[in-house]
## 1
Amino acid sequence: MSTKPYVNLSRSAWSALRHSTPLQLTAAEVERLRGLGDVIDLDEVREIYLPLSRLLNLYIEATHGLRDALTTFLGEAGREHGARPATPFVIGVAGSVAVGKSTVSRLLQALLALPHSRTETEGGAVPERPHVELVTTDGFLLPKDELRRRGLMSRKGFPESYDRRALTRFVANVKAGHPEVSCPVYSHLIYDIVPGERQTVRSPDILIVEGLNVLQPALPGKDGRTRLAVADYFDFSVYVDARTADIERWYLDRFRQLRETAFRNPRSYFHPYTQVSEEEAMDYARNTWRTINEPNLRQNIAPTRGRATLQLHKAANHKVERLSLRKL
């Protein structure tokens, strides 16, 4: 018997696990969910993400059953039939800059929010629509002024550039069933936290947390005691993986596209790179990749891959070519 923690599945073997899960998204909806530079179509949704949504729904139901068993053991009142569980199911999505984790997260949010079971009411059977919230860890980056004060502007995206305590506290409060929990909002336009703006999460059935370093283990406190990390609150986690050379190419392609679109906005932090030659702008992008994003990937992000429940391995064309599912 194998003692390896992961079972490796080819694309075709994984696709067969979809069974009869219906495809309820249209091509237009998939296009709307797609991130800039990412390549995804209905076939990718059908063959990769429908089986994943089926697996996640199985995990969600099993997790609710375990929580009911614990409630029974503790002698507490169980969930009423048909009521939403007080404790949301939390999914973490990790991976490098430009690997496509935002697209994966938005797709999962859309698929998991679709009706997947039916609940009896006085008016007959109606679809049950889970309430699915998506939060990115960008909102927990330290503000630019604070990053400058700490000398961390050249390490933006590294674990130390986040308010990790606030992120962990946020997810812990959502998981604990607080009716409303809010977090800061990050703007890619101004490349900073938006002053006074908050995202409020209200009693979700499912919470998706997307970010570079969400699978990082907790660091010991100053007193030497081990703390909880945000990943300790995940019920399921996904790592979006690809070859480093492919991710670099995707990153540069995305920068080139942004230079022709969003960076044209005079308010954009990167607007100055639309006022120079393409060669100079791309030299900046390559330097950013090699001095910030690639070291962060190699030192901090990739080493957490083995902590994920599921690894999606992308080919050079952005298509998922194989998957690794944790079984132990």
## 2
Amino acid sequence: MASRKDSQFFEGGRSQNVVNGSRTSHGQWGRAWKADWFSLINIILLLISCPFIVYYFIMSCDQYNCSLSEPAIKLLSGRVHLLDIWDKTPSFTWKALILYTSWVIFQAFLFMIPDFCHKFLPGFKGGVQEGAISPAGVALKYEINGLQAWLITHTLWFANVYYFQWFSPTIIFDNWIPLLWCANILGYSMSIFTWLKACFFPSNAKDCKFTDNFFYDFMMGIELNPRLGKWFDFKLFFNGRPGIVAWTLINLSYAAKQHELYGQVTNSMLLVNVLQGLYVLDFFWNETWYLKTIDIAHEHFGWYLAWGDCVWLPYLYTLQGLYLVYHPVQLATSYAFGILLLGFVGYYVFRMANHQKDLFRHTDGNCKIWGKKPKYIECVYTSASGTKHYSKLLVSGFWGMARHFNYTGDLMGSLAYCLCCGLDHILPYFYILFMAILLVHRCIRDEHRCSNKYGKDWKRYTDAVPYRLFPGIF
């Protein structure tokens, strides 16, 4: 259930992993080697509950006008049975299957085309790029072409809307629930395939982790970087395409449906399209940076990412636009401007915080942050091989305010999306609640890893920067 939002570097500075002229990896990467009973229970609960949550939210909009409480009350009171809701659920259709299959194949085709955008867009890093060093010491190369795929896809979308008219721009909304069944088929199929692949023909056996517990391995993944051939990387494809490329198309389809139903597109719908569109474009503009984040460098590829990117991301990250189809909200100009400002400030904080960290890392601290030479904590740690490594943890700029201030910017942007929908229903606020839980959990998990990695030096760092997200609060 990942996106760039929940995929940040967990180190605050530049890590110098150099031994005899070559880079090495440390033993903290990836998910656990063993699954305790508490983790196993949580895994099973997530496997059961997450598909139901997606179904419940989508059907609440389809049958109960986006009310989350009404179906629950009727179910608990016995006035309606789960089978009644199921009987009213739009079923799988061959049209949806053809649409979804065509979409995935088209994105896979674009994924394999060499990137040309980096040749004419100043500042954009695309083309063949190197990822992080894996625990097995492998530095994979990636074809970074997500921005190109997004531009081609959306150019064709608008060409269809304004010229060819092969299909209605409301096609995604009109087939939204049948497409849900197709997304689940792909998500589960890829989860099963990559589990079998890891067991019988892994891309790199040294980058696999087995716990001998099927449920944990199935959900959290076994292979770190499953691939077919040299270039088709499952994790990069499913993290970025088809889900995130589709994100803006889904919102555009919602806007088209709102116009079809009510004769206008409200300013709230425009805000959702603009703010989330900015996020998506930022993701693809910085796709090379994404290679060094937790999702690509540390997370193994299992149900968590395969199903999450196929189902959870496109269906629950777009709830604001879906809600606005059923409940069009025209915001007061001052309120709309305030939301836009909150979204832009959140984006600025997120982007500049990451820029400061990258600048500090790439210059080894020989730079200026907010006009001053940056302060940092020097750390020493020992890898699993017994080799000493050195890191510098940044404590200047945004990173002197909180240890995960980029997450703070993320949360500000997430709140802006939700505020576009007014205050009548809780459903569109699921996103900010989910992101808050997810990012707080990620903070704790990352810091546990860093504490084990750096030891007493991490304590020095947390003493220098005592807050995680919100200065003076948390």
## 3
Amino acid sequence: MTVLQIAFLTLVFIAFFALALWALGLLSPATTDQRLRKVVGDTAPASGGAADRWVDRVARLTRPLGKLSMPEDGFEQSALKTRFVHAGIRNPAAPVAYFGAKTVLAVALPVLVFAIFTLTKAPIKGNALLVVVLIVAAIGYYLPNAVLSRLVFVRQREIFESFPDALDLMTVCMEAGLGTEAALNRVAEDMRLKSRALSDELHLVTLELRAGAPRERALRNLAIRTGVEEVDGFVSMIIQAERFGTSIAQSLRVHADMLRTRRRQRAEEAAAKIALKLLFPLIFCIFPSLMLVLMGPAMIQIYRVLLPTMAGSQ
């Protein structure tokens, strides 16, 4: 074993040892949480959610590396900050954990791949190995972007699918005599079992209204936080109904019918795309095996009988 291989083995061992210590730090409760549990009892939940504690620990561990890729100024007004809000991530340590993960993955994955290819004596060497390492580094750098985009997509889809039902509940509440604020509060409580994300957003609207914020500003903030086009339309409809003095309950009923139609159309569109999505695996995975099963015996008989006969006749 050469000195280079020993160095890479040592590096891999140190990396896995650090990863194990990092995992133990994430799994073990924080010191503050342990003290709180001792004060209020072992059965009481710790302060903050598990996801927030996990983000805090990741941010604390990756803070020095996160500064390498984190922008210095203007982050609060950037589009990335809005994407965090759309994903429902409100922890102030989330940007540090995000950029720290980008830096760690962009450095650790290429080193790990290079060590594996070097120690296993893979045929990929020279420029080819350099290209593979650069590709892996790019994948590691942009992997948090893909995860964040997926979180945004899942949350916005959940809000879109649950929003027509919330409008129906709000229509019933307002027709029963409740005001807009009381109806929003009641819908936020009732929607908690079906859509936690939508319930939290409506609850934030009620908190802003209780704090004295104008109704238009609170509803605009709802549209900004969700990033869903249907919620933006709902906010515009409520504001226009209040300005022109029309019935809000009737407007909600019409808007809910439109959203249910749009939800059904999206489901029909997704169902219509199934045939096209099945085309690639059907052609490249199913058809070759099917042709092999159907034509395999015939080709064997041709090889055994027809080809010797034709060779003998010549």
## 4
Amino acid sequence: MSPGPARGRTSGAEAAGRRGSVRRWQLVRAGSDAVPASTRRFMRRARQRRMRAALPWAVAAGLLALAGLVAWAVLGTGLFGVREVRVEGAELVNPVQVRDAAGIPDGVPLARVDLAGTARRIGALAPVQRATVTRDWPDALVVRVVERTGVAVVPQGERFVVIDDSGTVFRSLTQRPDGLPLIRVVEPGPDDPGTRAAVDVLGALTPQLRAALVDVTVESLALIKLRLDGDRTVVWGDASRGDDKARVATALLGQRAETIDVSAPDVVTFR
């Protein structure tokens, strides 16, 4: 018998035996009683700890997303855009002038409006002394205007300009308005020394002098004159010591004199 074929048959049998003996694995779900209770409690507590640790991050992420959505709606869309500009306190300027000076296009997001810049632009209108601008959600701007108050009127050619207590010219009229004293200066304005001197003199006058006043003429900074009714003249001199000069001039109003010189109130002359 040849040994070769025998070895070959033996090897084949062994291989078949090995193939028949391969184990087959199958996954099955263990019953709840297969895991010890202590292990289950540990795993439950671990899950709870993970959830508690993740909760603040989840809340923070939600809040950030909500804030981003709100910011986008407020700043990036016309949902809260300007639809109205309300003007309060304006008489010398009309609301259209105020809105034009504000320069806010319709639909601009209300939150993006530069309130201070808008107030400055409105305040540049001559009759406006100051302005404040506030937001009125969801779609309005409120402009509150404080206008200048006239203290005197200055003739300029065939017109009359009105000035406030700073000397600022803010109105030009064809007729002299009632109730304002007349001053005569060459170039009225806040930077004109003659205008400021005349305003200072007006501020020092007593009610009696103001009631009798016709006009104030600034011939020079050292020579200011008051013309009173009855063709009387008060030589005021410069604008200094206004209260003293007003008191002395008022005391002499009853004198029969065409000219009262109070430029040196300690030494008064009249004729």
